[in-house]
Amino acid sequence: MRRYHLVVIGAGPAGLSAAIEAAKHGMKVGVFDENARPGGQLFKQIHKFFGSKEHKAKIRGFNIGNELLKEAEQLGVDVHLNSVVMGIYDPLHITVAEDDHITSYAGDNILVATGASENMIPFEGWTLPGVIGAGAAQTLMNLHGVKPGDNILMVGSGNVGLVVSFQLLQAGCHVKAIIDAAPRVGGYGVHAAKVARTGVPFYLSHTIVKAEGNEKVERVTIGQVDSHWQVIPGTEKEFDVDTICLAVGLSPMSQLTRIAGCKMVDRGGLVPETDEYGQTSVDGIFAAGDVAGIEEASSAMIGGRIAALAAAKRSGFVTEDEFETEYQNQHASLMKLRKGMFSHENKGRTDLVKTDEGYPLSMSLLKNGYIAEDEIGEYPGVGRTKKVGVHPVIECTQNIPCNPCQDACKFGCIEVGETITSLPVVKEGSKCVNCGMCVASCSGQAIFLVDEEAEEGFATITLPYEFLPLPEKGDKGTALDRSGKAICDAEVTQVRTSGAFDHTALLTMKVPAEMANRARFFQKREGVR
Amino acid sequence: MRIENHPIIDSYQKGKKVKFTYDGKEMEGYEGEPIAAALRAEGVMTHRYTKKLHQPRGIFCAIGRCTDCVMVVDGKPNTRTCVTMLKEGMVVETQYGVEARRTEA
Amino acid sequence: MAGICDRSKDIGPFVPQADDDLIICRCEEITKGEIRKAVHMGLWTMTEVKRMIRPGMGLCQGQTCSKNVKRIIAQELGVSPAELEESTARPPVRPLEMEVLGNEVEEL
């Protein structure tokens, strides 16, 4: 039987990171994944990641996947694809179905990094073709280049629902609405805002009443829910859609740890009980990533590394001291991410009204997906004093773990500070050379370069633009406000693209001066979106 | 339904163009993409009809978990089309219950 | 998990609901009403319901429905879903042909 020092089940962000860390310390590692391609969900993530440099912030998910794969390959990690791990047996054996046969492998240590599966909610008509998981939409459009549908209703306003909605728009689909039974947008406000300003309406406290159609989805009815989640009669609305995307949460895919006899706990889905190093109740079996508790990819990568270090210590590949030092580094990195209003301990809280700094949270952002015009002046990235010339306006109003904007500005115009969940501050009196790096580096697409007095009676606004066809200089169209409402005529004065911007184009439009702080999106006249 | 140009993704990993049949009708797709992706690109929504209630089903999870997208592929029923890669000349058929042809209940 | 072991608890009669026709287990086409009725027949655990009326016994092995089945049983019993034990996890965790399962190869 082939033996590895570490058997990793799942080649997603946690599994690959663990494999890399273990191989770096001299362990022979075998990674098993049921899919034809490694990377887990990373290759479907086409947005720029949050965090700081050490968390690979502002790099798009699929590029992170490529980096991890390359590193694993260079370190001699065996990646077994199309290899379905059927079960874990005593003592630390796995059986794997590969092609037409079953093979057993032994591991000195086993790391379960099988990720999560999507939750699905039943409603009338939910078995009709056209009702799909949000992950299915991502798989079809981002991996295979096929649009899941033309007209889409997104169910769920968590980060998955918001990110996938934006990706659907990028693929050329129409997102008719985003609905959520909860009264507040669940995901990052910046993700909501970049969807809302293109004109996608948000319906919070709404659920699906039914989906209908002949052999496939053709129509959906939604309705507002009361405090007992019951639809209030008379609030129903109908949309003509061919696709309903469900993004209503994830559950850890923990069957293998249950088969292995690990002690399980219920944390919105069964997860193996682990210590801070990912060690389960069964000696030598570790868990990391979503299977150990749902978080995002950045935390999963660190969790994987920590579990690999613990396995390396267990098998004598690192000394106690080496382990302690490296663990502390990883732990510190993890703690930077686990802060702010979206952290574990604040998950699902609906009573927060202020940021950590004491700024009032935008209630409109939580209810409608965009910041109201009378709320925007409050934040430190926006600034209240009148500026001269081009300057950044940072509409980042929630404590999310992210700081690439700070590194992007070579002139120190933007400050986040040590705590990466702090709101970015645009420093008074600092210099802006209109380079656009902050706009392109903001993973939340929340930075605009504004010049209130670009010319007599007109202002210019530079915004991040990630859609095709790319408008050109001289194009005339309409400026949309944060809610996606058309507010005035606009003319494109510049479109900048650059390798350094990594596919984020910087579109500059000219609008009447009084629209400088309202106009946030450009729509070409023909109405192509 | 194919995305010709994408603002972020420069190219998709795909093999050469191949022909396959869907319920006897000739269709085109790319080698190495899931059968389900090729069918969706050709506008096919229904992959099977259920055994008990004879209701249509199609792609649901697209990652091999839910098994809703199973079809009869090269004579083999219950083939998950979302994780089975397309090959030249494949014979893909709608699945009725667990068979390729509708049988009267 | 102690509460649900007490089978003397009165959960009241089965009362039909408007959405009893809703399919919960997509593979085996088991409805919400069938699951609720099973609870009132005295099947109070995930395993019992699964063995008797088959939600989660289909091709996908409960990957899609188990959370929803659990919620329905819990609601009927008047307990929190966290109090219910999952049905047993067994290999193989993915659908597999018997031909493959029987073809074990020793790799060196």
How would you sum up this structure, described in words?
The complex is a heterotrimer of chains A (529), B (105) and C (108). Chain A has 529 residues and is an alpha/beta fold. Chain A has helices at 13-24, 61-74, 134-143, 159-170, 189-196, 255-259, 297-314, 320-337, 363-368, 404-408, 437-441, and strands at 2-9, 29-32, 78-80, 83-89, 93-98, 101-112, 116-118, 131-133, 151-155, 174-180, 202-204, 206-212, 219-224, 237-239, 243-246, 250-252, 264-266, 270-272, 285-287, 391-394, 414-415, 425-426, 447-455, 458-465, 476-480, 486-496, 505-512, 521-524. Chain A has three domains: 2-117 and 250-337, FAD/NAD(P)-binding domain; 120-246, FAD/NAD(P)-binding domain, CATH 3.50.50; 375-524, no CATH class. Chain A is built from eleven helices and 28 strands. In chain A, strands 1, 2, 3, 4, 5, 6 and 19 form a seven-stranded mixed beta sheet that branches. A seven-stranded antiparallel beta sheet of chain A has the order 20-23-24-27-26-25-28. In chain A, a hairpin with a 6-residue loop joins strand 12 and strand 13. Chain B has 105 residues and is mostly beta strands. Chain B has one domain: 2Fe-2S iron-sulphur cluster binding domain, sarcosine oxidase, alpha subunit, N-terminal domain (Ubiquitin-like (UB roll), Roll), CATH 3.10.20. Chain B has one helix and eight strands. Chain B has one helix at 35-41; strands at residues 17-22, 25-30, 48-49, 56-57, 70-73, 76-80, 91-93, 95-96. The longest helix of chain B has 7 residues, at 35-41. Chain B is globular, with a radius of gyration of 14 Å. The model of chain B has no long low-confidence stretch (mean pLDDT 94). Chain C is mainly alpha-helical and 108 residues long. Chain C is 31% helix and 5% strand. Chain C is built from four helices and two strands; from the N terminus they run E-E-H-H-H-H. In chain C, helix 1 (32-40) crosses helix 3. Chain C starts with 22 loop residues before the first strand and ends in a 7-residue tail after the last helix. The mean pLDDT of chain C is 90. The interface between A and C is medium-sized, with 32 and 29 residues.
